[in-house]
Amino acid sequence: MQGARARLAALVAQRLRGLPPGGSKKRVVDKGPAKIGELSKEVATGVAIRKGESDPKLLPDDQYPPWLFELMTPEPSTAELQRQYEKDGLTLGQMKRLFRYKNKQRIREDNATRAKK
User: Main location per UniProt (predicted)?
Assistant: First the structure.
């Protein structure tokens, strides 16, 4: 305990740094993308991560991994998951999603009943 008190006293005794001289600097405002709504068939517009980097070129579909195209398929709705759960069963990921949704619904209903009191 004594060591902690000594460290705290040393920190308090140190002089804190103030603001830099010269006043406040002008703040940079993000203006967003330069061109809105313009898409290209050769370049992935607006995908560059680093400042000053050019947008990456689009490749043919066979050069992308197959899992990338699976991301575009929509997830089944919770009603569909419930029907599938009652009939055949679900995969672990689908079951987690269904029970997470049910838990959120239960919490919302519980909060709504408590708010009415």
Answer: mitochondrion
